[in-house]
Amino acid sequence: MRKYVLDLQVTSASQLSERYLLLTATDSAGRLPEMHPGQFAQLRIDESKETFLRRPISLHSVDYEKNEIGFLIQKVGPGTASLWQKRPGSTLNVILPLGRGFTMPERPEQKFLLVGGGVGIAPLLFMGQEMRRKGIRPTFLLGARSKSDLLRLDVYRALGNVYVTTEDGSEGEKGFVTQHSILRDEDFQHIAVCGPKPMMMAMASYARSKKIPCEVSLENMMACGLGACLCCVEETTDGNVCVCKEGPVFDIEKLKW
Prior knowledge:
With 257 residues, this protein is of the alpha/beta class. The protein has three domains: 4-98, Beta Barrel (Elongation Factor Tu (Ef-tu), domain 3); 102-217, Nucleotide-binding domain of ferredoxin-NADP reductase (FNR) module (Rossmann fold); 219-257, Dihydroorotate dehydrogenase B (pyrk subunit), domain 3. 17% of the residues lie in helices and 33% in strands. It contains six helices and 16 strands. The strands form three sheets. A seven-stranded antiparallel β-sheet has the order 4-3-7-1-2-6-5. Strands 11-10-9-8-12-13-16 form a seven-stranded mixed β-sheet, sandwiched between helices. The longest helix is centred in the last third of the chain and has 14 residues, at 197-210. The model has no long low-confidence stretch (mean pLDDT 95).
């Protein structure tokens, strides 16, 4: 798939909490290219003098009618924190779309479970949007530390059924997503997961025990995003591969977990 270097114009910058920012931007010079759920973009950091590398950010939402793309950004270090300085009208330089995305349903009756933890919920919104565009209503299972860490639940609920866990029990069922009762009460034909590695490994174990096809989106540290720097190498059944190029989405049967 062709990659583009674009100067997008920021249309909104909404701080959702102390740690999360929703940044939306448009290509005022043309139409956004075709993108797939699970792919990501490399964002240039212009406001931080100590940050030299771009930051890989999942495609959170894509609205082709508005020609607008959304990024859900977690404040981790000076690079991501500097994006808090973006304001409507400012420039956001990106390289996209990068990597390989999730497998989409082939039949409307297929039951897909989309599991996200923390900022790992980000790519699942775009996947849910594309599924609804095909007339398919997905099921979301979203986990967080507490109620304050749950983001944009109303938007997810507009796309599908939403189930929630929090570690402190302040919203939904108490515990981890891997402990939610829906995993015992319902059957699914496919599972897509993004979040902390221990959570993804636990979901992969569950999927194997139920013989359910499962894909996970890895969050290995990346530098170039193009497969040149070998920073994000992961050992798979096909040997060592660059997550940014061969992933970030992988079938769990390809991973040596």
